[in-house]
Specification:
alpha/beta; five-stranded parallel sheet; globular
Length: about 190
């Protein structure tokens, strides 16, 4: 993989870029860097929910439960997918909503940042801002979430990128190359 950081998408690339994947997959880190490189606005769905409510995600889960949080998440993603030329990091469970999956497919290119449950556990094990992992066995929970959500992520995705142990910079460059190949109709993605 090339170390180029200047890979540009074709000038006519009109679509939004939406990142999906489980918590800890790198959606926010990669999304920020990708948006900066492509000179686009970056949005993080969870951060937008926190900004709108004035409280952290775990507080919303405590008060409204996961179902209440998902209603808020769906509304935020509906608003954000209506924007143009953005990069959006969705929450890990956003794809549970059929309406959200349809909006993502309709309004942009969807990239699934795929990682193993073990890699995700290593990345998130000290993060207390992940309500679904506040359990006796977070790795088992990640395996359960992966089994449930991987088919949904794969189904909605235009591109599936394994994150592995790559740096954020290398991963972002790789995604830029894949997107460029998609838009140019190359059909020969270097994966």
């Amino acid at each position: 993989m090339s170390e180029q950081h200047s890979t540009q998408l074709p000038a006519a690339f009109p679509q939004n870029i939406f990142l999906v994947g489980l918590m800890g997959a790198g959606k926010t880190s990669v999304g920020r860097m990708l948006a900066k490189r492509l000179n686009r606005d970056f949005y993080d769905a969870d951060a937008e929910i926190e900004r709108a409510t004035g409280v952290k995600i775990p507080v919303i889960f405590d008060i409204e439960g996961e179902s209440g949080f998902r209603v808020r998440e769906e509304k935020v993603i509906e608003r954000l997918t209506a924007l143009r030329d953005i990069v959006l990091a969705t929450g890990g469970g956003a794809i549970l909503s059929p309406a959200t999956r349809a909006r993502l497919k309709e309004h942009g290119r969807v990239i699934y940042l795929r990682a193993t449950p073990e890699d995700l556990w290593r990345r998130t094990r000290r993060d207390r801002n992940r309500p679904l992992l506040q359990t006796a066995n977070p790795l088992a929970k990640l395996k359960e979430l992966h089994a449930q959500r991987d088919p949904l992520y794969s189904d909605v995705a235009d591109l599936v990128v394994d994150t592995g142990a790559q740096s954020v910079g290398n991963l972002t460059t790789h995604i830029q190359q894949l997107l460029s190949g998609l838009e140019q109709g190359a059909g020969q993605n270097q994966d």
